[in-house]
Amino acid sequence: MRTLIVSDIHSNLDALDAVLADAISNGGIDGVWCLGDIVGYGPEPMACLERLWGLGALSIMGNHDGGAVGLVSLATFNPAAKAASLWTAGQLTEEARRYLEGLPQTLTEGPFTLAHGTPSDPMWEYLTSYSQAEAALGVIGTSALLVGHSHLPFVCQEGLRMELGAAHGQRIAVDGLRLAINPGSVGQPRDGDPRAAYAVYDDITATVELRRVAYDVSLTQRKMADAGLPESLINRLSVGH
Ligand code: ZN
Hints:
The chain is about 35% helix and about 20% strand. The chain is an alpha/beta fold. Strands 3-2-1-11-12-9 form a six-stranded mixed beta sheet. A six-stranded mixed beta sheet has the order 4-5-6-10-7-8, with helices on one face. Helix 7 (about 215-225) runs antiparallel to helix 8 (about 230-240). The longest helix is centred in the first third of the chain and has 13 residues, at about 15-25. It is globular, with a radius of gyration of 16 Å. The relative contact order is 0.19. Zinc ion binds near residues 8, 10, 37, 149 and 151.
């Protein structure tokens, strides 16, 4: 079974569809795990939700998902994020609101615990250091951990240093290993590479493959401009930062 692992889609349907096409043509997928922040920042929140529903994806809640439905305070969001969150709230159907409100903060699937930020602070903590990864691995009941939130792909194996960044096509053996992995962001990469980032877990080979795929950034930017979303959010997609 091959499971697509996506995080931080952020209402970017063009990026999500590029990821789906790439994953399907590169061995196919049997399921989808989403690590949160389905919505926020981007121009097509409902279309992204409907895509995930159509795929029967399992998802956890990110701070932007909670923010769009009033479960997470927007007080700590920067002005652009807050403006996008309020715009997003106006786009959601009642069904979408109920879905986002009902998302769990963590899940366990196979050898993985899934958390948006960290297992102990899923909404807010950015996991970006080895010591944080070690602490997070210490509180979970599975051997490995999948996180999002920072939009920065990394692989960290307990006992070894954290590798920030991930090469396209990089494969990681997960068989029983104590690992923390961030697949990077589908819809708003922040590692200087504007291509959408994602991963695929294959439970037969017991590997996670990290991948990047280009999408039509200018198309997404035009949709954001048409929606009146903040210019800073539009511009950052070009540079992946
Ligand atoms: Zn995010």
